[in-house]
Design brief:
- By secondary structure, the chain is of the alpha+beta class.
- The chain contains two helices and ten strands.
- It has one domain (6-162): 60s Ribosomal Protein L30, Chain: A (2-Layer Sandwich).
- A five-stranded mixed sheet has the order 1-3-8-9-10, with no helix packed on it. Strands 2-5-4-6-7 form a five-stranded mixed sheet, with helices on one face.
- The two termini are 19 Å apart.
- GO terms for molecular function: protein-glutamine glutaminase activity.
Length: 163
């Protein structure tokens, strides 16, 4: 296995890369890490989105903050590296319920709303979700390997797993 570089994706950030490089993002709580992959060209992308819907905000200059605009921008960057959008597949992780909620307040259900928004956006683009590790109440750090398409999930006190 050729080891490329591990590219860090910050919060409300996105990056695309080619094999052998890999992508990682730390501390996905209610945020969702959306990994997109073209299995033929091995072009990968990772989005760390914080909020479900850019249309709720007036000056949203950071497209990566939102599920809807972030996925569009990620696909654009991946296509510039040679990905074909008709072949893209997705793996998603995160969307945790980080605060024990006694109320069922919409504002506190950001994680769940992020996951729903990501799924709706991917469905609208005909991008199939191969696997997911979402919800529950713990944060995750993820690594996406462009060579294999493995999405490795790490969470404190849980066994590491690849989805």
């Amino acid at each position: 296995m050729i080891m490329g570089s591990m590219i860090k994706v910050g919060m409300a950030d996105l990056k695309a890369c080619k094999c052998p490089d890999s992508l990682t993002t730390l501390g996905l709580g209610s945020c969702v890490g959306v990994a997109l992959y073209d299995p033929v060209t091995k072009v990968s992308g990772l989005l760390h989105c914080m909020l479900p819907d850019s249309t709720q905000f007036r000056n949203n200059t950071n497209v990566a903050k939102f599920a809807d605009t972030g996925i569009d921008e990620l696909i654009k960057q991946m296509k510039s590296l040679g990905a074909n959008d008709s072949r893209l597949v997705a793996k998603i992780a995160g969307g945790a319920q980080m605060f024990a909620n006694r109320t069922n307040s919409e504002a506190l259900r950001v994680g769940e709303r992020n996951v729903i928004a990501v799924k709706q956006k991917l469905k609208s683009l005909n991008i199939r979700i191969l696997s997911q590790d979402c919800g529950e109440n713990f944060g995750r750090t993820v690594e996406f390997y462009s060579e294999t398409g493995d999405y490795v999930i790490k969470a404190v006190g849980k066994p590491q797993k690849a989805i």
